[in-house]
Amino acid sequence: MPDTLDVIKINGRWAQVIGGLFHDCGIKYLKDGSMENVDLNDYKFSPLKETLVEDLLESPNGEFGDEEFENVYFDADTAKDYNAKMEVTVFGEFLKE
What is the reported pTM? Predict the structure, then answer.
């Protein structure tokens, strides 16, 4: 299961894990800032070749853009730190079964 602050793709939308226990976690969608709790047992997991936010930004498909990047959170001290955001882990993709 992803750790808090890991970036995930869930049903085609980029999100960041903001808390939770085991398979039940809170997520914040990076595009619009909306939040919800999801049970990841209801989703099929697939790893992605990108393992860091930096990899997503460099990906030629361009589906992870500046808007998503701006909303990636690292911690209160480095909330606007470009390099810290680049090092946030990308866990993988979840699709509803």
Answer: 0.91
pLDDT in tens, 18-71: 988 777 899 999 999 999 999 999 999 999 999 999 999 998 777 898 899 999
Alpha carbon separation from 1 to 17, 21, 46, 95 (Å, rounded)? 10, 9, 12, 14
Domain ranges of the chain: 7-96
Which residues are within 8 A (CB) of 88 and not within 5 positions of it... i.e. 6 or more apart? Answer: 5, 6, 7, 16, 52, 53, 72, 74
> Could you tell me where the beta strands, DSSP code E, fall in the chain?
7-10, 13-21, 24-29, 35-39, 43-46, 90-96
